[in-house]
Specification:
This protein has 4 helices and no strands. The protein is mostly helical. It has one domain. The longest helix has about 40 residues.
């Protein structure tokens, strides 16, 4: 029985490089927050809002890299949904741990801000995906489907 390699990722090299750069950037931002003691896993702070934004970009970028049987347009919407869901779960865990430790919950404005940052991060990836991947596919399919128009000028 021969071994068949099954690809887990379905992506272009350009999109994979965008995803890897965003992942390394998110790790740098998280590391800086850890070193400067800005990373508080139990409270939602302005730095946590930045982390929600950065990691939403990473999560939605990796979702777009996965091999999923969806049209690319729907795949991009799935990526936004996954980013918002993961960020909401993260916020809920932060809320519960803060409540269990100190009996205090975070400001609802910061919680809503975290969800907005998750959606904004997903939208950034959605726009990048449309500009880099879908725009190229649409442009190449238009050029194949319609012959090049020849400009004719009336002869005198």
């Amino acid at each position: 029985m021969p071994f068949t390699a099954q690809r887990l990722l379905d992506t272009t090299p350009r999109w994979l490089s965008i995803t890897l750069v965003s992942t390394s950037s998110a790790l740098v931002v998280s590391g800086v927050g850890f070193v400067l003691n800005l990373l508080d896993p139990f409270n939602i702070t302005p730095f946590t809002l930045l982390l929600h934004f950065v990691w939403a970009i990473v999560v939605s970028g990796w979702v777009l890299n996965l091999k999923v049987k969806l049209y690319p347009e729907k795949k991009a919407l799935l990526a936004i949904g996954v980013a918002v869901t993961a960020g909401s779960i993260w916020s809920a865990v932060q809320q519960w741990t803060a409540y269990l430790e100190g009996g205090v919950v975070n400001d609802i404005t910061l919680v809503a801000g975290a969800m907005a940052m998750d959606a904004a991060g997903g939208l950034v990836v959605y726009i990048l995906f449309h500009l880099n991947i879908l725009g190229r596919k649409l442009g190449s399919s238009r050029s194949r489907s319609s012959p090049a128009s020849v400009l004719t000028s009336p002869s005198p």
